[in-house]
Design brief:
The complex is a heterodimer of chains A (956) and B (297).
Chain A (H helix, E strand, L loop, with lengths): L3 E5 L2 E5 L7 H8 L18 E4 L2 E4 L12 E3 L11 H8 L9 H17 L6 H7 L11 H10 L27 H6 L14 E7 L5 E7 L1 H5 L3 E5 L9 E2 L6 E2 L5 E2 L5 E7 L2 H10 L1 E6 L6 H4 L16 E9 L2 H7 L2 E9 L11 E5 L27 E5 L4 H12 L6 E5 L15 H11 L3 E4 L2 H7 L5 E10 L5 E11 L7 H10 L9 E9 L14 H19 L3 H8 L19 H14 L11 E4 L2 E14 L8 E11 L3 E8 L8 H13 L6 E5 L16 H28 L7 E3 L2 E4 L2 E4 H10 L5 E7 L15 E14 L5 E11 L6 H20 L5 E2 L2 E2 L17 E7 L21 H13 L2 E2 L6 H10 L3 E2 L6
Parallel strand pairs in A: 1-5, 6-19, 17-18, 21-22, 26-27, 33-36, 37-38
Antiparallel strand pairs in A: 1-2, 3-4, 3-5, 6-12, 7-11, 7-13, 8-12, 9-10, 14-22, 15-20, 16-17, 16-19, 20-21, 23-24, 24-32, 25-26, 25-31, 28-29, 29-30, 32-33, 34-35
Chain B lengths: L11 E3 L4 H10 L4 E4 L3 H8 L7 E4 L9 E4 L3 E5 L4 H6 L1 H6 L1 H8 L4 H4 L4 H7 L7 H6 L3 E6 L2 E6 L4 E3 L2 E2 L6 E7 L7 E7 L10 E9 L7 E8 L9 H9 L4 H14 L10 H23 L2
Parallel strand pairs in B: 1-3, 2-3
Antiparallel strand pairs in B: 4-5, 5-10, 6-7, 6-10, 8-9, 11-12, 12-13
Helix pairs in contact in B: 9-10, 10-11
The chains are: A alpha+beta (956), B alpha+beta (297).
């Protein structure tokens, strides 16, 4: 056996590893350098990039022995006492969100910057786009990445921070996320970065067929395979057989039938992943195959096969209705009526970190497996686990705990869920993936069990964005006033409920757009099909309905000869107007201002500066045009669901740093920037410098329940919980200090770590010591309930806040090929208040580029329940080359009950871009896209044939 | 430590010391050994379960395979081990064969191009191979080391089907040979992907033209089309049209139409056959026009 010799980050390593091992595997699993990430294992995403003898390579498919004798540089080797200029620039420019792709981006950029520096050449945007092509980032939208790299290369670029209202001491300032340091150095721990002595590896037996009755499951051969430690089927699930966030209809392990190809039928834990995979192959399942329900419309036909025979309404998951006014009156008042049918595809989240979960049995002690109790292997994680514990990058740790406990027949309190960092979520990590399986296998084997999905498994299994068919009928008067909207939506909710009902409810209640429409009737049918389940995805149904609404708006404007901006302005919601669900908006509706800003910017940036604005023009075979669209999105769960978050704030005195605070909340950070928001709110509330506030998230034993990280709600609800908890702590300190300083508590000023009153200035640390000396616990928990909402159909406030936005896109259409490019996007978004304008800008840029992918390239293609897009090479998300220039404004119409006036933003930016792009295409070539994503072939055909509408989407 | 997802089936990574040793090994282990250069495709295919080789024979860096040499008489030799980024940056390639650099630049990502090679791209024999068209129109051939010694295989007769070539067990392509290009020539590669996202090409068109007093038109054109047939396609009828008729916009359109008629593309999710054919016409027209404008100046 030849030894593998490498020089890694300046240190010589000699290893005895198999020939078939790849460099990424050696770095991560043999050398513990987990900063190098594996995103796809097929050399498509580029995030595993390391330097071999100075040149960047995709380490996931680089045979380790090919690097025999080579010098390897990884993210861990970059900081040399101080951060490398690239690492610092990524922080300064807000180019880090979930952080999972960050090491790959930085290493790829390092090769470029080094190469250019050696040649004494500057680094241009073009160089960056060439060098980082196919090094993916799903969060940032790339603009900040380009700025950061130019900065690191010495270009002197200022961070892009939009203008905001006068900031406080911490709130309203562009501060970096407290977890960002670990993300740029490779220290940050995602689930697969944890290792526990004695750990086993698990694989899942998937259904492989879209719809079938299970006749028998034979695991005997798998169990007999040496190295297999446990095989589990439904018979081994001791508690509840199903899981589910809202409806409990998804089998932990299938028992009577399978309903989609990714269904889990059995799981295996073995000494190695290879043995587990081999065992999975040996499991024999006899099926009686059933007819496949492949789309939501056929699902509703009387002869359709029924997925869940126990349900009363066949394949109907939910019929959702919106009624307002009277449709006959509405359409009678209209001078024109536009009726069209639109279709949107199933979309994959394509977060770059595949799902991973680790189960640790109750009473686990690493010493029993030759490990050490104080092993700091997992960077600070305790070694002994008294409780059954699951490590997972989850958007809803408490819901995971409930589901794990229920399926294992345990009390919630007997299970601990520790949320690790999340390498992107976007709604795709709300449901259970491997959590129950690893807990079950850990309990069965008495050992830690890790289950990491391959990219291909991730594509197959987790819930997607709903495909929809939306028929929408819009009535308008000659003067441009909307009179009525009638719509019918079909949503493909896939095999299990997941959050389908909620998603499609949001699609329904937003299907008349952010407009004042007197008469509305909307019906939505969320249907079960044999496709992968559909659930939460940034935009939560509104991305789909906005495409239909805003397309119809442009058709109406053209037909009436109205300017599309004026037409929208005339009808836009405002304070005092009533939504289609009967909610009167009483504050924080900045939509008119968003429209004004976008119109202004679009006209200022349209083409050559001195020419008057035109919606469209041509240059050779290329047609250019602008398109505009509006969007809005609720903040919070709404619909009468109690929307609660609890947070705990504690202060103490650190020997070296002085007064410190920690905010604890089980809200999840998946890159959206919540830690910074909570840190800033607590710093503001306590008058502490922001770097003295620590943030602890997502641990069901250490942090209180903040509810799900969904619906753009955490800044609002957990922000408020943090604000009020901090207020209580401050109140306690004020009362204590006021006695010492001989003044009334409300005369005290808390600022920059000090308390001032009566001409005295003391350090907050003093007050904390006094309080402790007097026997007070210097912490407070606050259970925040958002303003009460009403169920759909009852009128009243269905949501406690909405965010509003306008976007305009400049597109280029090549009339020889049908290709579409997005050149620029201008946007303005009313977010109530920007707690952190830089992380908020990141949400805006990332949301726009994600939405551009939805419009132009992304389609999770399925044929009769079987995905074609089963590898990353077939599912194309936008790369850096396609990142448009983004000009963005923040509008701050404070909402009364939001923390410092803030409402949600996470989803808003990924709503208007779709229709802004397709409206631009129509303005450019006169062809309207009715189905997404845009098919350049069909577009060209329609253009040449003189057709006005194209109904074929790419991938069909 | 173990890897959390299943590793590839075990294979032996063989690094032979010489070409004869490599050829011998490959011939002796026919069916279970595969030569690799960059290995960019091989390992993805193994990961996907398509290939299950027992021996991976790394021939990159063997004797004399690592250089780019140019000689005005003999032309250009690119060793099989030379990665695409080196080709993109090579002064010789950029001066005399810029279309090859252009084509190489469209291949995948920078990271993959640090390993991917032109010779590997050719030997993969993918109908979509980005650099194959340039090598074809430039009159390229491969130098091949086999069990019986060294020989040359012209690319015009090299491809047999998707992934299939005239190479035999034990054969190792060691270099790409490009003759000195025709005097006064120009060439263009146009790759069309889906909505400009760096995907595999839906179609690829390479056109090369040069003044030639022996033809009625006074010019000769060579064309190559990617992703429109089981093998990289040369539309000879279109070439003839451009040689025999005085070149006008109409004649170019006629040649483009002929190129389109020569294609036999498949219908798949990446593009319909109809669209591919249409794009062959539009892009051939575009590429030929661009080349003609340069060479007729």
């Amino acid at each position: 056996m030849t030894l593998l010799k490498l020089t890694v980050n300046g240190k010589i390593k000699e290893l005895d590893v198999p020939h078939s091992r790849f460099l990424a595997e050696v770095l991560r699993y043999d050398l513990g350098l987990t900063g190098t990430k594996i995103g796809c294992n097929e050399a498509e995403c580029g995030i595993c990039t390391v330097l071999v003898n100075g040149t960047p390579v995709d380490s996931c498919i680089y045979p380790a022995f090919k690097a025999q004798g080579a010098t390897i540089e990884t993210i861990e080797g970059l900081a040399n006492g101080d951060l490398h200029p690239l690492q610092q620039a990524f922080i300064d420019h807000g180019a880090v969100q979930c952080g999972f792709c960050t090491p790959g981006l930085i290493m790829t950029a390092k090769a470029l910057v080094d190469q250019k520096a050696a040649a004494n050449e500057p680094v241009t945007d073009h160089d960056i786009k060439v060098a980082l092509k196919d090094t993916y980032c799903r969060c940032t939208g790339y603009s900040s990445v380009i700025r950061a790299i130019r900065q690191a290369a010495g270009a002197g670029v200022e961070p892009y921070v939009p203008d905001v209202q006068t900031p406080g001491a911490a709130v309203g300032r562009p501060l970096p996320n407290p977890d960002v340091f670990g993300k740029v150095t490779g220290d940050a721990m995602y689930t697969d970065d944890y290792h526990f002595p004695g750990m086993l590896y698990a694989r899942t037996k998937r259904a492989g067929v879209p719809h079938a009755n299970i006749i028998s499951i034979d695991t005997s051969q798998a169990e007999a395979l040496p190295g297999v430690r446990a095989v589990a089927t439904h018979k081994d699930v001791p508690g509840r057989k199903n899981h589910g966030l809202f409806k409990v209809d998804w089998p932990a392990l299938c028992y009577d039938k399978v309903r989609y190809v990714g269904d889990a039928v059995a799981v295996v834990a073995a000494d190695t992943a290879e043995i587990a995979a081999q065992a999975v192959e040996l499991i024999k399942i006899d099926y009686e195959e059933l007819p496949v329900v492949s789309d939501p419309i056929s699902a509703r036909q009387p002869d359709a096969a029924i997925l869940h025979p126990d349900r009363p309404d066949g394949n109907l998951l939910k019929h959702i209705k919106v009624r307002k006014g009277d449709m006959e009156t509405g359409f009678a008042e209209a001078d024109i009526v536009i009726e069209r049918t639109y279709r949107t595809p199933t979309i994959e989240h394509a977060f770059l970190e595949p799902e991973c979960a680790i189960g640790i049995p109750a009473g686990y002690n690493p010493v029993d497996f030759g490990g050490a109790v104080d092993a700091n292997q997992n960077r600070g994680v305790q070694a002994v686990h008294p409780k059954l514990t699951v490590y997972v990058g989850s958007q809803i740790p408490y819901a995971d705990r409930e589901q794990v406990a229920a399926c294992l027949g345990l009390d919630d309190e007997a299970v601990r869920v520790i949320g690790t960092l999340i390498g992107g979520g976007f709604g795709g990590k709300e449901d259970i993936a491997g959590q129950i399986h690893v807990a079950l296998l850990a309990q069965k084997t008495g050992r830690p069990v890790k289950m990491l999905y391959t990219r291909q498994e991730s594509l197959l299994v987790h819930p997607k964005r709903h495909a929809t068919v939306i028929r929408i009928k819009t009535g308008v008067k000659k003067d441009g006033r909307l009179t009525a909207v009638e719509a019918e939506l079909y949503g493909d909710s896939g095999a299990y409920a997941s959050l389908g009902e909620k998603v499609m409810t949001r699609a329904t209640t937003h299907a008349s757009g952010p407009y004042d429409v007197p008469h509305v009737k909307i019906d939505c049918y969320a249907m079960y099909t044999n496709n992968p389940p559909a659930g939460a995805f940034r935009g939560f149904g509104v991305t789909q309905s906005a495409f239909a609404v805003e397309s119809n708006m442009d058709i109406a404007a053209h037909k009436l000869g109205l300017d599309p901006v004026d037409f929208r302005r005339l009808n836009a919601l405002d304070v005092g107007k009533v939504t289609c669900t009967g909610q009167e908006l009483w504050d924080s509706v900045g939509l008119q201002e968003c429209i004004d800003l976008v119109e202004q910017e679009m006209k200022a940036h349209h083409t050559e500066q001195d020419e008057p604005f035109r919606w469209s023009w041509s240059e050779g075979a290329k047609q250019y045009a602008w398109g505009i669209a509006l969007g809005y999105k609720n903040t919070g769960l709404g619909g009468g669901a109690p929307d609660k978050s609890e947070a705990e704030v504690e202060v103490w005195v650190d020997q070296h740093q002085g007064a410190m605070a920690e905010i604890r909340s089980a809200a999840a950070e998946m890159g959206q920037g919540l830690p910074a928001v909570l840190m800033q709110i607590v710093a503001e509330g306590l008058g502490l410098p922001h770097n003295r506030v620590k943030v602890l998230l997502s641990d069901t034993d250490l942090t209180p329940d903040a509810g799900p990280t969904t619906a753009s709600r955490q800044t609002y609800v957990s922000g408020n919980a943090a604000r009020f908890a901090a207020q209580q702590v401050r109140q306690l300190l004020a009362v204590v200090a006021s006695e010492h300083l001989d003044c009334a508590p409300d005369e005290l000023r808390f600022d920059n770590g000090q308390i001032q009153a009566n001409g005295h200035t003391i350090d907050i640390a003093e007050a904390i010591k006094w309080a402790k000396d007097e026997g007070h616990e210097t912490k407070a928990s606050y259970e925040y309930y958002a303003p009460k909402t009403q169920p759909l159909g009852t009128g009243g406030d269905m949501h406690f806040a909405f965010s509003f936005g306008a976007q305009a896109a400049l597109c280029e259409v090549d009339t020889e090929t049908g290709q579409v490019k997005v050149k620029k996007v201008v946007g303005a978004h009313d977010v109530g208040r920007a707690i952190n304008p830089q992380t908020l800008q990141g949400q805006v840029e990332g949301g726009i580029v994600m939405c551009m992918g939805n419009a132009l390239t992304e389609h999770f293609v399925m044929e009769n329940g079987r995905p074609w897009t089963d590898v990353f090479a077939r599912y194309k998300i936008p790369g850096i080359k396609h990142a448009p220039e983004i000009i963005s404004h923040i509008v701050e119409h404070n909402t009364a009950d939001g923390p410092y006036g803030a409402k949600g933003v996470g989803e808003l930016s990924s709503i208007p871009a779709n229709p802004a792009i397709t409206n631009a295409i129509c303005n450019a070539i006169g062809v309207r896209v009715m189905s997404l994503p845009v098919d350049q072939d069909a577009l060209l055909r329609a253009l040449k044939a003189g057709e006005k509408e194209v109904t074929t989407a790419w991938g069909e | 430590m173990h890897t959390p997802t299943p590793a590839l089936p075990e294979f032996d990574y063989i690094k032979p010391a010489s070409l004869p040793e490599a050829s011998r090994f490959l011939a002796e282990h026919n069916g279970e050994a595969r030569p690799i250069l960059g290995g960019t495709d091989t390992f993805v295919r193994m990961r996907d379960g398509f290939w299950k080789e027992k021996y991976i024979v790394d021939v990159k860096g063997l004797d004399g395979m690592d250089g780019i040499t140019f000689d005005p008489a003999a032309g250009l030799t690119i060793g099989a081990s030379v990665n695409m980024n080196r080709v993109v940056a090579s002064p010789e390639v950029n001066e005399h064969y810029p279309v090859l650099a252009e084509a190489a630049h469209t291949v995948a990502s920078y990271q993959l191009r640090t390993r991917a090679t032109i010779v590997g791209n050719i030997c993969n024999a993918s109908p979509a191979g980005d650099t194959i068209g340039a090598c074809l129109v430039l009159g390229g051939s491969l130098q091949v080391h086999g069990v019986d010694g060294i020989r040359q295989e012209p690319l015009s007769d090299f491809f047999r089907g998707p992934g299939q070539t005239v190479l035999k067990p034990g054969d190792i392509a060691t270099a790409l040979l490009l003759p000195f290009p025709p005097h006064g020539y120009a060439a263009k590669y146009i790759k069309l992907g889906r909505n400009a996202i760096g995907d595999l090409s839906i179609v690829g068109v390479t056109a090369l033209g040069y003044p030639d007093s022996d033809t009625p038109s006074g010019f000769r054109f060579r064309l190559a089309l990617a992703s429109v047939a089981p093998v990289p396609l040369v539309p000879t009828q279109a070439e003839t049209i451009l040689a025999e008729n005085s070149i006008t916009e109409t004649v170019i359109a006629e040649a483009a139409q002929s190129a389109m008629d020569a294609c036999n593309p498949i219908d798949d999710v990446r593009g319909s056959a109809r669209y591919r054919r249409l794009m062959v016409r539009n892009l051939t027209k575009k590429a030929v026009t661009e080349v003609w404008e340069k060479i007729s100046e």
